[in-house]
């Protein structure tokens, strides 16, 4: 059985799915698991993505779960690893990005990695260490009002430094623009300065491809799903990626479908609103769930009722309510 090349640890399910999609687009046959698979499980793929639910749990628990995922991925033979988090760097001053990155570096016995949550396709860019969401800074994007991870500081060097005892540096855009060799030289300089984690500027997909090439020898890379854009080519250049033309092939699955949405982001609310304008949906009320009401049973009954007519339904947990 061929061993996996790239092992990925994501701090939530939707982000893991984004990352898996990015890798498939790059020609890597990718398998995603929800949680760490049982010991002894062997999966044949080019890339493996373990989806955790560790973004807002206690930092020590996030570290433990991430290390368990790393151990399993190493057992699959992975050559390089990604720690994937949100493109808006969702975190608090206690973590969990910094503590998990530190722990993974320790486990891999490595001394440097980058942090780059950039995703230009969705308007997430970094310039001189500051994260933009579209045309506004992170702290003006609505993320400053997030109930669990309010992002009130757009400067990711400062944000990450508050989460870690490691020294945090910056790979600025003027270095990125000079190409992969310049980035590698900057990394060498940062390491001499004692920097262990460095925010990497990027404003376009082209920058992410350049970063991917520059980071080919790093054991660990951290960032959003966009950081995966430039990695498949590194394996292809070493003649390790041989199934690129079949990466998106999936077995046909017959049956009906249900759409699930759990995010509370503005984008998800807009998508839910568009769906609700013309198609059936069921809103999960978290307060009713906390009261012990049979919300799951009600959602299943709703779905079964519509599926009799071959209708696809949406089950969601965002704040949007359909207008009647």
From TrEMBL:
Coiled coil: none
Keyword Transcription: no
GO MF terms, alphabetically ordered: ATP binding; kinase activity
Keyword field: ATP-binding, Carbohydrate metabolism, Kinase, Nucleotide-binding, Transferase
Source organism superkingdom: Bacteria
Catalytic activity, EC: 2.7.1.217
Stretches assigned to the Four-carbon acid sugar kinase N-terminal domain: 6-230
Function: Catalyzes the ATP-dependent phosphorylation of 3-oxo-tetronate to 3-oxo-tetronate 4-phosphate.
Keyword Signal: no
InterPro entries reported for this sequence: 4-carb_acid_sugar_kinase_N, 4-carb_acid_sugar_kinase_N_sf, NBD_C, NBD_C_sf, OtnK
Protein name: 3-oxo-tetronate kinase
Family per record: Belongs to the four-carbon acid sugar kinase family.
């Amino acid at each position: 059985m061929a061993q996996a090349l790239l092992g990925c640890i994501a701090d939530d399910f939707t982000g893991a799915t984004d990352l898996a999609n990015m890798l498939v687009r790059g020609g890597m046959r990718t398998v995603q698991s929800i949680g760490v698979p049982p010991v002894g499980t062997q999966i044949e793929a080019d890339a493996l993505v373990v989806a955790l639910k560790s973004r807002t749990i206690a930092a020590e628990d996030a570290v433990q779960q991430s290390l368990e995922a790393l151990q399993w991925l190493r057992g699959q033979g992975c050559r390089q690893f990604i720690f994937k988090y949100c493109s808006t760097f969702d975190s608090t001053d206690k973590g969990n990005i910094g503590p998990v990155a530190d722990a993974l570096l320790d486990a891999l016995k490595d001394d440097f990695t980058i942090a780059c949550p950039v995703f230009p396709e969705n308007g997430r860019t970094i310039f001189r260490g500051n994260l933009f969401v579209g045309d506004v800074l992170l702290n003006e994007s609505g993320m400053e009002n997030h109930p669990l991870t309010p992002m009130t500081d757009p400067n990711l060097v400062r944000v990450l430094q508050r989460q870690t005892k490691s020294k945090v540096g910056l790979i600025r855009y003027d270095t990125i623009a000079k190409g992969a060799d310049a980035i590698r030289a900057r990394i060498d300089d940062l390491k001499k300065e004692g920097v262990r984690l460095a925010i990497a500027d990027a404003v376009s997909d082209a920058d992410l491809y350049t970063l991917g090439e520059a980071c080919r020898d790093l054991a660990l890379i951290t960032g959003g799903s966009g950081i995966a854009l430039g990695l498949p080519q590194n394996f292809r250049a070493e003649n390790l990626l041989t199934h690129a033309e079949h990466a998106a092939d999936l077995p046909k699955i017959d049956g009906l479908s249900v759409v699930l949405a759990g995010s509370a982001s503005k984008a998800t609310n807009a998508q839910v609103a568009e769906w609700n304008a013309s198609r059936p949906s069921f809103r999960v009320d978290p307060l009713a769930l906390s009261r012990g009401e049979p919300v799951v049973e009600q959602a299943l009954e709703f779905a079964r009722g519509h599926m009799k007519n071959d209708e696809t339904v949406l089950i969601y947990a965002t704040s949007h309510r359909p207008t009647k």
